[in-house]
C-alpha cells in the first residue's frame, strides 16, 4: 500500500541513501519545466536501480584492462568474490532488501543451471581458468543473471510500479516455464521461440506498467518495456564478448553478437519478471494519482 506523508504526498521508496539526494536534486531542478526535471530524475532513479548490474559490467571491463595471467588470483574468481562482497555490502547497508536478495538467489540458481547446460552443449564458452566454477562455468556468471533480477526488483520498488490488467498467476508461470524449458529443448526439438514471442504478446497484451518518477505517474505497455530492456541487455552482452569474458563459437575474431540473441534476452526477461513477481506481487495502480502516458505508449 502506498504511504503518504503529512502533506498527502507519496513517500518515495528510494531508500535511506538515495532519498536525501532525490530531495536535493528535486530542489535544484525546481526552476526547470516539470517534464525536464521528471526526465532527469527518471534517469537518476534508473541508474540507482541498475546499481548491481552497473557494478558487474564495470568489474568485467576493469578486470579485462588490468588483469595479468601471472597474478595469484584468476580473473573469474576475482569477479565472483567481488560480486559476492558487493552483494553483502548492499544488504549490510540496507541498499537492497532481503526480499530483493531472495529474488536474486532464485535467478542466480536458475541462471547457473542454464549456463551449465549451455556451456556443455557448446553454445558459448568461458575461455579463462577459474577455481570457483562448476562444469566449466565460473560462478560469477550467476551474478550476471542475478543482477537482472536485482534491477527488476529495485525498479519495482523505487518507481512504485503498478500493473493494470495483470494476467492470472498460472498463465504467467506457465509461460515462464515454457520459455525456460525451450532454452534446453531447442537443442533436441524444433525451436518454439516464435510461438513464445506470440505468447508473450497474447498473455501481456493488455498489461501496462504504471511508474512514479517523482510527482507524476506515467505508464508504458509491458511488452514495449521488455523489448527496450532486451536491447540494453544485448548491448551489455556485446561488451561481455568484446572483453573476452565469454565467447560464442563464431567469435574467433570478435564481431557483434547476432540480433537473434536480442530475441533470447527478450524471452528470458519474462522468466526474470515472473520470478520477481513470486516475491513482489504485482499491485494495481492507485488511480487517485495523476497519470500521464509515456509518449511511446500512445
Please supply descriptive tags for the structure shown above:
single chain; 298 residues; alpha+beta; two-stranded antiparallel sheet; globular; disordered N terminus
In round numbers, the mean pLDDT is 87
Report the end-to-end length measured between terminal Cα atoms.
28 Å
By secondary-structure content and strand pairing, the structural class works out as: alpha+beta
Q: Helical stretch count?
A: 10
User: Portion of residues in helices?
Assistant: 55-70%
Identify the overall geometry.
globular
Following the backbone from N to C, one meets helices and strands in this order, namely HHHHHEEHEHHEEHHE
Number of strands: 6
Beta-strand content: 5-15%
Unreliable parts: 1-12, 290-298
The number of distinct structural domains comes to: 1
Work out the radius of gyration.
20 Å
Numbering strands along the chain, what is their spatial order in the largest sheet?
Answer: 3-4-5-6
Largest sheet: 4 strands, mixed
What do these coordinates show?
- By secondary structure, this protein is of the alpha+beta class.
- The chain has one domain.
- Helices cover 59% and strands 7% of the residues.
- Helix 5 packs antiparallel against helix 10 and helix 8 crosses helix 10.
Describe how the helices and strands are arranged.
Blueprint: H1 15-29, H2 34-49, H3 51-66, H4 75-92, H5 98-120, E1 133-134, E2 137-138, H6 140-158, E3 162-164, H7 169-185, H8 193-204, E4 208-212, E5 217-221, H9 222-242, H10 260-279, E6 291-293
Parallel strand pairs: 5-6
Antiparallel strand pairs: 1-2, 3-4, 4-5
Helix pairs in contact: 1-2, 2-6, 3-4, 3-6, 5-6, 5-10, 6-10, 7-8, 7-10, 8-10, 9-10
